[in-house]
Amino acid sequence: MLTLNTTIRALLVTLLFAGLGLALQSLYGGVRVHGGYFYGLLGSVWLIAVLIVAVPAPRNVVQRSDGALERQFLMDSLGAYSPVVYSSVDRDGRLTEISGSARAMAGIDVDGLIGVSVPELVAGDPLLVADVQRALAGEHFVTERQFGARHYRHHFFPIYSRSGEMLGYSCVSVDLTQEHSLNAELTLMRELLQNTTDAISVSDRHHRVIGVNQAFATITGFSHEEVVGRKAGLPLIEGANPGLYRDMLRALRQRGVWQGEVRARRKGGELYSANLTLSVIRENGVIAHYLAFFCDITDLSDIRRSQEELQYQVNHDHLTGLPNRRLFLDRLDQAMKRAKRLGGRLAVYFVDLDNFKLVNDAHGHQFGDEVLKSVGARLQMVMRDMDTVARLAGDEFTVIAENVADREQILSVTRKIVDCFATPFAFDGGSLELSASVGIGVYPDDGEDMVALLGGADAAMYKAKALGRNGFFELSDRLGLDGVGKLVQLSDLRLAMHREQMALVYQPLLDLRTGGVVGCEALLRWNHGALGVVSPRDFLPLVEEKGVIPELGSWVVHEMSGRYNLWREQGVVLDFVSINVGRQQLEGEGFLDSARDAAEMNALPPGSLMLDIPEILALDDLERTRRFIAAAHARGFVCAINDFGASGKPFDYLRELPVAMIKLDQRMVGGPRPSGELQQLLNAIVTLANLLGIRVLGVGVEQSRQEALLRDLGCHYAQGYLYARPLGGAELPVFFRAQQSPPPGIARSAGAAPLS
Known about the structure:
single chain; alpha+beta; Beta-Lactamase; 5 domains; eight-stranded mixed β-barrel; six-stranded antiparallel β-sheet
């Protein structure tokens, strides 16, 4: 229904249009208009005027008049480009009107709010209550308030009647939440642009670039100046079709993001791969900006693959590819939880390679690495897919076998592991025999927690080594709990000499020309109180590896020197006695000084103490070996190369080492009848040794034909079970006297010349 004011305004607009019409008629030559037509036109103008005045224009329609008004409107609009709510309140504080944009009014029950007391409506917010009181007092002001998760700017205007009476107030509330969010996003974008190593470009809604970071220029080759203002915010995608761009735009409109890998070209034309992510920034639901993130992955895997590779490296051994200690412990923990939940059993096997350090010393670490990889591969081949084969460190491997029903199944897995070492390992036309000691721990029999189970398996492995290596030991069948306490320990080694558990035995060395005993090799034995006689091969590698008991070598020299003196008093005169030296003794002169003191104390004749250096140690560092030999000579000792030929390397290095003797590797004379090629090699060795003035000793002689071969080749000495096993200190004089009468086939001749 039209109000009086509306009618008056419509009439004024009608008269304005009518006057304008008469003026136009007069201006254009006095064109006459029929009366009926004029009054019909006047009525139409009246109707249009009513519609213009009575019907409010949409809020988003801009009525332009002149440039100044348009600029003013634009300035006002830019200052409040957010959803707006308009409300009116009477002098009693009751809401009389509320309206606004559709988005701003969504969810508001307008009819239910009309007539409600505004002070009561906002009673829970003291700041808004104070604002309402100021507005009811007639104050014109602007405030910003946080209301829930939204942020508003409120414009309060007092309403007065024509007579100046205060009728209430009106409030225009502008939702600034979107503006604040956009500012935060832009701030974040600026930080990313400055700090990220990924290329980033920001474009407007028309895809024109407004900014790029330095990484963009680095990857694409295009500078900031070359792309800003142009539609160049994406990499120059190679082979892209319209369908790809349609998919990008559809994803951005629907989900706000698109991701994918693309091939692109740099400014110079070079192709590269990029992992591209596109996203949008919206203002009032409309896309305002496009963001492009991409990185160069030409020579790298994609991000997922990189993460998987990193995870793999963290959990796997880099050499064998097997699970490492970290993954092994995690899998064992999970397996024990499953066994506990299901009431089952599992077995853990500790596999330690026997004397693997000697393999590294003899053939180098690269060869040793290949052996370790082969061991891991063999173990994996014999185990089930559900089992875990891991490498803990060095030459230590572990196996987890789940769902083992009984001892027979546990031992079946053990036999598979031990059989992995039955076949020699072949490398470069040669082969290597290797064995391992296996310790077994069973859950829950040997431990109900991880620490106890692993400790038991480790202890069982050391027990297997102490029992002779190349075997296994299971705690579940441990011959009583005291078996674990009988393992070889470093603390036992340190006390062994003080407990007089260490002893020397002597292997006689015979002159092949006379058959007489001309020397002997001192060999160490450990008479362990619980384990019996322990061979040096079972404890010396531990001594060498851990770098302990430096006085052990000195004790051997003192013991042997004293025994040599006693033999001399008994009429047993030997040209030399020899002892073996290890890596620790080669690397320092402390051993040589203590050996000299022991020799002087027992009046050992100069040149009668021979120090046997293993060939693998001699070749490991020839300069170190030369220094050691020179220092030994300075103290009155002579040196020999032990296990000569074991390395398989050319033997012309002898020209650089002034040694008195070489002791042939046992495999050269102790095996089957040598081939013609091996005989030629032996002949060449003996010939070279004779030219250099070096004596040759054949080791491991067990048969007469081996002795005959050595004699025919021109070797000087022999040693082996054909003559005698290692003898005690009191037994050697008896053997010495028995050998004074030459055996059949050996003619008596003058003794060998002194070695020194």
